[in-house]
Amino acid sequence: MQEALAASERKFRTLAENLPNHLARYTIDGRTVYLNPKLETLLGYRTDEVAGRTPTQIFPDGRYAEYESRILETARTGNDSQIELSIVVEDGTQLAHHIDCVAERDDTGAVVSVLVIGHDITQRRRAEVDLRMAASVFQAAGEAIVITDPTGVVLKANPAFTQITDYDFADIDGHNLFELDNAAYAGIQAALEQDGSWLGEISCSRKSGESFIQRLSIAAVNDENADVIQYVCIFSDISQAKRHEAQLEYIAHHDVLTGLANRMLLTARLDEAAEKAHRAGRLLGVLFIDIDGFKSVNDRLGHQVGDQALVQMAQRMIASLRDTDTVARIGGDEFVILLPDLSDVAGCEMSASRLLKAIAEPIDVEGYRFALSASIGIALYPEHGDDADSLLRRADEAMYAAKRNGRSQYVFCSDDSRNGLHLDSSRVYRLRLALEQNQIEVHYQPIVDLATGRVVKAEALARWRDPERGLVLPSEFIPLAEDSGIIHAIGDRVFSLALDVAEAWNKLCPDGGKRRISVNRSPREFLDPDGVDNWIAQLDERGGCIGHMLSVEITENLLLDDRPKVLCQLAKLRSAGMTIAIDDFGTGFSSLAYLKKFAIDDLKIDRSFIVDITDDPSDRTIVESVIVMARHLGLCLIAEGVETEAQASLLTSAGCDYAQGYLYARPMPAKEFLDFVVAAETGALGVVA
């Protein structure tokens, strides 16, 4: 009998030690009898270490309390029981186990021990979690998910599929996905058979027939033999993103106001057109257009009217040209047109003529009717340049030649025209860039009342703060500005800045007396078709008595031609409250006749007569004579270039009204000037270094 029991025990242990499962035997009161090697490894204890101890004695933290309870229940009732147990091993890993508790009986049927068999179900539980998660994702995903068999027949689809395509699952159940839209899915199945996956963007149709863009990803699901058993298709509707992307692309390459190409798109098309012209042996025309008189309209009638006028101009240009031509807006009232694939110059001239005619047609905007014109400069590839920068620069030069020659015309770029203008293209470009980047600034030189020593006037003087050369004086860049036509923009900028300082200065005056700032106006500016309209518009916009804080300085030669247009402009400025001063008096063709005929307020005696006034009797006699003459004519005298106390004393004795020069102050930036005049209000001025 004992031998039989021993043999049975050996068979049991042999079986237990080779089982893939965990196995243990416990007494009916829960004490450990045996642990097989697999369970010993799991728990970290050998049988001889824990024999006679219950699970809760081995692990007193309570993790196996339920386990022990099931063992005791099985021993007590004799009924088999099951439990799912989470086991934490030494490295902290948590494993899921299914436990079967089996009662072992003797020959009489009494329970003598409990056999416990454990199965590691960790992977199964993880798979179940993954499946539940996948199911949740499948249902809640914002992207459409469709599962098909290897031939493309739909097996399952999530709610997002219906939301995106309007197809219910019943509409596609059992149908081939790739046959719903043959054109969209053409070629995809062949790619899947070859590569097992596909990724890309396609245009599809919803159930209603409306088209949309989808970003589609298809991947094969393979079995253990690497055979395809399913395809998982995931796609999203990217139509709105595509539209937004197209809008951003459009905005990046087009002018917001007119919808025309901007400088970036223009440059790209110009390079492309030049390359095509080179390969085909054809001409390419580049037309640089500036709208004459636009700034005056914009200032007088407002930006809204100006914007609508530009839109009309853009539409007229497009209507006057071929579909293959490009119209671009690169600045406020500046446009560039590309005329590709020209066989000869005549085609370019015809286009320019049509543009001039179209632009000159009257414009009706918000009850206003007015007409504008255009100055057009033309450069040709390859004659005038072989890249975008050179062609645009030469066309720009030609445009300024058109302005200089009277406007409302087109001018071809040529070496003769360049020499006639005395222009250095690089300097013109840098000067225009300086204006755009606010490098043109204004300095102010005080003018002193000789009787009181107080600063009551000042002259606004343009300066170019060149990043490379430093501060450039007007004698160096004003002639270039006049020849290139940039003088009009510079003059308007100086006037606008002088207005700011004049207002600020007069607010600082404690006595309420008007202080005036004088602004030089070039003869070229008076010959502009817009005249002084821009200045008058700026004065009207500010309102009040701002004009009484300003004076305009002109050269005496301007009045010799006796042009009605010039006289009319001077009258407009005087009506606005501005005074008129003759600058550098005595250096031109001085005439007492025009001093009597024209409404002149001030004479500024040129510094060449002042420099030697204390040493040269002739200069002193001339100055004294001019002072006497001015007094009889009711004019005020301003002496320029006063640098010594002796000069100032002599001028005061002779009855000169005002003085300007380094004795009092050098020209200075706006803030420094305002600080200076505030300080000057405390007393008479001395020499300022």
UniProtKB/TrEMBL annotation:
<protein>
    <recommendedName>
        <fullName>Diguanylate cyclase</fullName>
    </recommendedName>
</protein>
<dbReference type="InterPro" id="IPR000160">
    <property type="entry name" value="GGDEF_dom"/>
</dbReference>
<dbReference type="InterPro" id="IPR001610">
    <property type="entry name" value="PAC"/>
</dbReference>
<dbReference type="InterPro" id="IPR000014">
    <property type="entry name" value="PAS"/>
</dbReference>
<feature type="domain" description="PAC">
    <location>
        <begin position="81"/>
        <end position="133"/>
    </location>
</feature>
<feature type="domain" description="PAC">
    <location>
        <begin position="198"/>
        <end position="250"/>
    </location>
</feature>
<dbReference type="InterPro" id="IPR043128">
    <property type="entry name" value="Rev_trsase/Diguanyl_cyclase"/>
</dbReference>
<feature type="domain" description="GGDEF">
    <location>
        <begin position="282"/>
        <end position="415"/>
    </location>
</feature>
<dbReference type="Pfam" id="PF00563">
    <property type="entry name" value="EAL"/>
</dbReference>
<dbReference type="GO" id="GO:0003824">
    <property type="term" value="F:catalytic activity"/>
</dbReference>
<dbReference type="InterPro" id="IPR035965">
    <property type="entry name" value="PAS-like_dom_sf"/>
</dbReference>
<dbReference type="InterPro" id="IPR000700">
    <property type="entry name" value="PAS-assoc_C"/>
</dbReference>
<dbReference type="Pfam" id="PF13426">
    <property type="entry name" value="PAS_9"/>
</dbReference>
<feature type="domain" description="PAS">
    <location>
        <begin position="8"/>
        <end position="54"/>
    </location>
</feature>
<dbReference type="InterPro" id="IPR035919">
    <property type="entry name" value="EAL_sf"/>
</dbReference>
<feature type="domain" description="EAL">
    <location>
        <begin position="424"/>
        <end position="681"/>
    </location>
</feature>
<dbReference type="InterPro" id="IPR052155">
    <property type="entry name" value="Biofilm_reg_signaling"/>
</dbReference>
<dbReference type="InterPro" id="IPR029787">
    <property type="entry name" value="Nucleotide_cyclase"/>
</dbReference>
<dbReference type="Pfam" id="PF00990">
    <property type="entry name" value="GGDEF"/>
</dbReference>
<dbReference type="InterPro" id="IPR001633">
    <property type="entry name" value="EAL_dom"/>
</dbReference>
